[in-house]
Design brief:
InterPro entries: AAA+_ATPase, ABC_transporter-like_ATP-bd, ABC_transporter-like_CS, ABC_transporter_ATP-binding, DrrA1/2-like_C, P-loop_NTPase. This protein is an alpha/beta fold. It has 11 helices and 14 strands. It has 2 domains: 219 residues, Rossmann fold, CATH 3.40.50.300; 62 residues, Alpha-Beta Plaits, CATH 3.30.70.
């Protein structure tokens, strides 16, 4: 079951195509990474998903029916990268106000505030003004204010900004817990190592277009370059290493990075070492990181646009 279905979404600003025919789905309970360089169209997509903007073309389905901002907005929690808190307002009053905006009763909101303030150990902040808090402390308050009404869809834009490692880990564990209990999460960040650690699926956009869409594990498999790292117990001589099954990319002491030749199988690498009586201490496949895939795909699209422009045809805008 999908919570969100994006179908051929388009949003134009004058001659700029902020979102240009993008489609993807977000399964219920998943942690979904929305990735792209600055100006790729991510913010416009998020604003359409939250009903702030209306698409020029295309459709957004929420729980299998057309998205209606008037009613569905109460099922969404949106934590923007920019602070959305009132600086002169006290932390407790702020949390209560934002919870009631989401349709919670005063009693229910106060119960939730107590639960989350206890859990995050911030009861001492209740009567402090937001402007008295550090950036990281404000981020914790904003996170709590975003999830208090138990949204079906939680949108987090750079949620770890300003957090120290301990509090970043606290928020990360809450994200995992929310996903396990059925909350669907859209996670937008420029930190690709966080994407690999947290996300089940991703979509990569650039210049308003979708470049990639799928499960993180499968995307890493799709972009692998048949590289392997192998450790040996003794230093082999050059003659022992020579084979048509693989080429040596790099050597670091008793460790080799090799590239499998076309037509050869993974076992051929191991069998070559065994036949040469070279003890193998470890053997692992090297998969590309999401950061490497991100750079490769965005760079390829940029280079293609430059080539098209240099041929006298209009580049994508």
């Amino acid at each position: 079951m999908n919570l969100i279905e994006i179908k051929h979404l388009r949003k134009y600003y004058a001659t700029h195509k902020a979102v240009d025919d993008i489609s993807f789905v977000i399964p219920k309970g998943s942690i979904f990474g929305l990735l792209g360089p600055n100006g790729a169209g991510k913010t416009t997509l998020l604003r359409m998903i939250t009903g702030i903007f209306y698409p020029d073309q295309g459709e957004i389905l929420f729980n299998g029916r057309p998205f209606d901002p008037r009613t569905d907005i109460h099922s969404i929690g949106y934590m923007p990268e920019e602070r959305g808190l009132y600086k002169k307002m006290k932390v407790g009053e702020q949390a209560l106000y934002l919870a009631q905006l989401k349709g919670m009763s005063e009693k229910n909101a106060k119960d939730k505030i107590k639960y989350w303030f206890d859990k995050f150990e911030i009861n001492s902040w209740y009567n402090k003004k937001v402007e008295e808090l550090s950036k990281g402390m404000q981020q914790k308050v904003q996170f709590i204010s975003t999830i208090m009404h138990s949204p079906e869809l939680l949108i987090l834009d750079e949620p770890f900004s300003g957090l120290d490692p301990i509090n970043a880990n606290l928020i990360k564990q809450e994200i995992f817990d929310l996903s396990r209990t059925g909350t669907t999460i859209i996670f937008s960040t420029h930190r690709m190592e966080q994407v690999e650690e947290i996300c089940d699926r991703i979509v990569l956009v650039n210049q308003g277009k979708k470049l990639l869409d799928g499960e993180v594990k499968q995307i890493k498999q799709d972009f692998k370059q048949h590289l392997f790292r192998i450790g040996v117990g003794v230093m082999p001589n050059f003659a022992q290493m020579a084979t048509y099954h693989f080429s040596i990319i790099k050597q670091e002491g008793l460790a080799y990075t090799v590239k499998l030749s076309e037509g050869s199988a993974t076992n051929d690498i191991l069998m070559h070492f065994i036949r040469q009586d070279i003890p193998v201490t470890y053997f692992q496949e090297i998969l590309p990181s999401i950061n490497e895939v991100f750079i490769q795909q965005v760079t390829s699209m940029t280079n293609a646009a430059v080539e098209t422009s240099s041929e006298g045809q209009p580049a994508y805008s």
